[in-house]
Design goal:
Elements lengths: L5 H13 L1 H10 L4 E5 L6 E3 L1 H6 L11 H7 L2 H16 L5 E8 L5 E12 L5 E10 L1 H37 L3 E5 L5 E4 L1 H7 L3 H4 L16 H11 L2 E3 L8 E3 L5 E13 L2 E10 L1 H23 L11 H18 L3 E8 L2 H8 L1 H16 L7 E4 L4 E7 L3 H17 L2 E2 L5 E2 L3 E7 L7 H17 L5 E3 L1
Parallel strand pairs: 17-18
Antiparallel strand pairs: 1-2, 1-5, 3-4, 4-5, 6-7, 6-11, 8-10, 9-10, 10-11, 12-14, 12-17, 13-14, 15-16
Helix pairs in contact: 1-2, 12-13
The structure holds guanosine-5'-triphosphate.
Enzyme class: transferase
GO molecular function, one term: diguanylate cyclase activity
Catalytic activity: 2 GTP = 3',3'-c-di-GMP + 2 diphosphate
Length: 465
């Protein structure tokens, strides 16, 4: 059926035949290349100016040879184009239409949609090919960008999905109870461990408020605390003191728990992730261990105390002397030792009885300790023999102290529970650590020797070596 434009179409055809300016306008203005190829002489091909301009070449340099474009077309695309050309020559229904890549003079790739039609003689034999180029490079670049964006999006989606799955898994499979809580304390999500810890199903927990899981007495400030936490954020442990956080099970049992809070901010709002660890057994264990440690300490101390006089015993003395010797070796401080022995103690026992002798042994340390300093160590090292370790004290100062002890003991009257009063004297041996002493025994042996001297010189005296 004829339409309103039909006569214009016919007129245009006529115009193109008669006025070459129309053809010129069309080929330069509407297309990115026009070519006309002599199939019988395939080296001859006319290409319009734009054909070459699009590819970056000066058309005036070109000789209108088919080899000129065949050299710069992508060689794989050339095969496709030639293949399509043959098919089209054999069968005009087969379109000559493909996208090919050319190398622009500047090295970049130019994407061309290349279409053509064979001009045939009366026998239908192709004589010429008339073809067009349309530069679709920008389209192709946009397509590549789009593909890149699409694959980036795919990648981000995959990463986000994985992260979500992982965090879901971490939440669910964590060894501790996890509760996701909103600012009002509503439980949004709970994991399997939370079910086990509190004795409620997940569905039940997700209908509850965290205040339902706290013993009544301490839940009063809880909601206020939650709101404060949401303002402060961060990750922190709840409760200042260890073992003081309590949680309530469905069966009413109060648990000792450790709660760690983490604030998670999402596009849909903030929520707190509360990780709750049941410390009941651990707390019980810690308490029992602490008890054991205190007990052991007491026992340990007992093994170092002389049961009669309640001052340190021989064992502690040996340890203390060893320690002081080591510390002296490190800091080169003077160290002195006094050995104290009661004179004729056997006679005290013989005269007043063993328990009276014990009373003397108990009283004597208090007498001696009146003249010792903080840091000095008095120990009972034998039946009626005592030792006094004097750190940071040289022999001269030790001698002054020893003389004072001898004097005060001689002045002292020991009051016995039997009513008698007893006078006695002491013999002392004093020494200090000398450079050649290789261990603490050297010190002890010298003090012992000095004490022996005091005894043999008549007792009630001090000898220094
Ligand atoms: N009451 C009492 N006597 C003790 C204790 N340990 C040792 N003795 C006595 O202390 C006395 C020590 O006697 P000796 O070693 O002969 O020395 P001494 O009589 O003090 O004479 P000298 O040391 O030489 O001055 C002994 O009679 C022991 O039985 C004790 O724990 N309590």
């Amino acid at each position: 059926m004829e339409n309103n434009g039909s006569y214009l179409e016919k007129e245009l055809y006529q115009l193109i035949k008669t006025d070459t300016r129309v053809f010129d306008f069309l080929q330069e203005g509407a297309l990115d290349g026009l070519w006309y190829w002599d199939i019988d002489n395939p080296e001859n091909e006319w290409m319009n100016k734009r054909f070459w301009e699009v590819l970056g070449y000066d058309p005036s340099e070109k000789k209108h040879l088919a080899s000129e474009w065949q050299d710069i077309i992508n060689q794989d695309d050339l095969k496709v184009a030639l293949d399509n050309f043959e098919k089209h020559c054999l069968d005009k229904e087969q379109p000559y239409d493909q996208v090919v890549r050319y190398k622009h003079k500047n090295g970049s790739t130019v994407w061309i949609r290349c279409r053509g039609i064979a001009i045939r003689d009366n026998d239908g034999r192709p004589k010429r090919m008339l073809g067009t180029h349309i530069d679709i490079t920008r389209l192709k670049e946009a397509e590549a960008r789009y593909q890149r964006n699409l694959s980036e999006l795919d990648k981000h989606y995959a990463i986000t999905k994985l992260a979500l799955e992982q965090s879901e898994l971490l939440f669910e499979m964590a060894p501790d109870a996890n509760l996701q809580v909103d600012v009002q304390g509503h439980i949004i999500k709970a994991n399997i461990q939370a079910e086990k810890l509190f004795g409620y199903s997940k569905a039940e927990l997700e209908q509850m408020n965290v205040s339902d899981l706290i013993p009544k007495g301490i839940s009063a400030n809880h909601n206020k605390n939650i709101q404060t936490y949401f303002k402060q954020g961060g990750a922190r442990k709840m409760g200042a003191e260890r073992g003081k956080m309590a949680a309530l099970r469905r069966d009413g049992q109060a648990l000792q728990v450790e709660i760690t809070l983490n604030l998670i901010s999402t596009a849909y709002g903030d929520y707190a992730l509360a990780t709750i660890r049941d410390m009941t057994k651990i707390e019980a264990l810690i308490t029992s261990l602490e008890g054991q440690i205190a007990e052991n300490k007491k026992l340990e101390e007992l093994t170092l105390i002389d049961p009669l006089t309640k001052i340190y015993n021989q064992r502690h003395f040996e340890q203390a002397l060893k320690k002081e010797f080591a510390s002296n070796a490190r800091y080169s401080q003077p160290l002195s030792l006094i050995l104290i022995d009661i004179d004729y103690f056997k006679a005290v026992n013989d005269k007043y009885g063993h328990s009276s002798g014990n009373e003397v042994l108990i009283e004597l340390p208090s007498l001696i300790n009146q003249f010792t300093r903080y840091g000095d160590t008095l120990a009972r090292v034998g039946g009626e023999e005592f030792a006094l370790i004097l750190p940071h004290c040289d022999k001269e100062s030790a001698l002054v102290l020893a003389e004072r002890i001898v004097f005060e003991a001689e002045q002292h009257a020991f009051k016995l529970s039997c009513g008698n009063t007893l006078k006695l004297t002491l013999s002392l041996g004093v020494t200090q650590l000398y450079e050649g002493d290789t261990d603490e025994h050297a010190l002890f042996e010298r003090a012992d020797k000095a004490l022996y001297e005091s005894k043999s010189l008549g007792r009630n005296r001090v000898t220094t070596i």
